[in-house]
Amino acid sequence: MALNDLKRRIKSIKQTRKITKAVELISAAKMKQSQKKLVALTPYVSRGLNILQSLTNSLDSDLRKLSFYFVENSNLSHPKNLIVLFSSDMGLCGNYNSNIMRKVLKIQEESGNKNNDFITIGTKGQSFCKKSGYNIIATFPKLEFKCSLRDILPISKIVLNDYRAFKYKEIWLIGTDFFTITSRAVYGKRLLPIEQDLQKQIRPQYLLEPQPEIVLDCLIPRLIEVQIYQALLNAKSSEHSARMIAMHEAFTNTDNLIADLQMTYNTLRQEAITKSVIEISSGMLT
Prior knowledge:
This protein is α/β, with parallel strands linked by helices and 286 residues long. The protein folds into two domains: 3-19 and 247-280, Helix Hairpins, CATH 1.10.287; 24-243, Pyruvate Kinase, Chain: A, domain 1 (3-Layer(aba) Sandwich). Helices cover 60% and strands 13% of the residues. The protein is built from six helices and five strands, in the order ααβαβαβαββα. The protein has helices at residues 3-58, 63-66, 96-111, 123-132, 153-164, 212-285, and strands at 82-86, 117-121, 135-140, 171-180, 183-192. A hairpin with a 2-residue loop joins strand 4 (171-180) and strand 5 (183-192). The protein starts with a helix and ends with a helix.
């Protein structure tokens, strides 16, 4: 490789190095902000689910008779599920999206129904579903880490209304749980119907006013909303942490590549100088 080509390549890699470092810093800042929201929301969701569990444990009657949120819509003429898929809008985040898509394929295979409908959050999931021939009923791109609970209300509205209308047998969430910067896990969990705990060891007694079914029908939609919002914050925190790690690795690789190219450049340059000196010396002797 010529010296000028090496110089151009080194310069190009140095520019790429600056870009990867900038993306790493931006992703770190976004991850911290979404993680902060997630940490604040998690106790609320946990406490809400505990309240629901305590209420249902205190009721003697069959929960399926009190609220259809506990009923599996198994009598549908063409039973299918609705899957809410959380992915990213951008790449440069390692295997973050590919792990999610593998989970989608696994759940589709386990369900035995290729006609499940999808709500996609993120353009990568939307593109995957289109290529795979899956039916998308709604898509929500560009939901950033700054979004609030109000921003996901259209998603929860579709989920709740369609389940009330007996369009789907089950509602599923597929996304990524965020634990630490280097630790996250892809999940697929059923959102509706709510599983009834049949092992009621502790049975606290509650006085419910008005009737239990009215309380449950007010409480459960709010819990569905915050669970979807929690899933979004988990997805955003995981996405930005994955991108931050990928860009850090790319930054490190550019350092190593620049060092190797610089050594090659110095070696070739030294050889060229030595050759020139020899030619000059030979000319003086003749």
